[in-house]
Design goal:
Strand 1 and strand 2 form a beta hairpin. The model has no long low-confidence stretch (mean pLDDT 88). A 4-stranded antiparallel beta sheet has the order 1-2-4-3, covered by helices on one side. It has one domain. The radius of gyration is 12 Å and the shape is globular. With 74 residues, it is an alpha+beta fold.
């Protein structure tokens, strides 16, 4: 189970932090930083083609959490 919280939430933007992750300790940063954003992009495209995402922090990079930002384009 992933522990996390919503840091920011509005009509156009949301920020999510995850404090543990299945990837942490199992994948290196190079693999994690490729697969995780691609998975988020795929989910966003399925939910709404105008929804975009990007990561700002990674547990595998030594950060205290993974952080993902989701933004809805006009």
């Amino acid at each position: 189970m992933v522990r996390g919280e919503i840091i920011e939430s509005s009509e156009k933007r949301a920020t999510v932090r995850e404090y543990d992750c299945l990837c942490h300790g199992n994948w290196n940063l190079e693999l994690c930083s490729k697969i995780s954003p691609d998975a988020c992009d795929l989910i966003c495209d399925m939910l709404n083609p105008k929804l975009r995402s990007y990561h700002t922090h990674y547990l595998n990079a030594g950060d205290d959490y993974c952080e993902m930002v989701f933004e809805l384009e006009d």
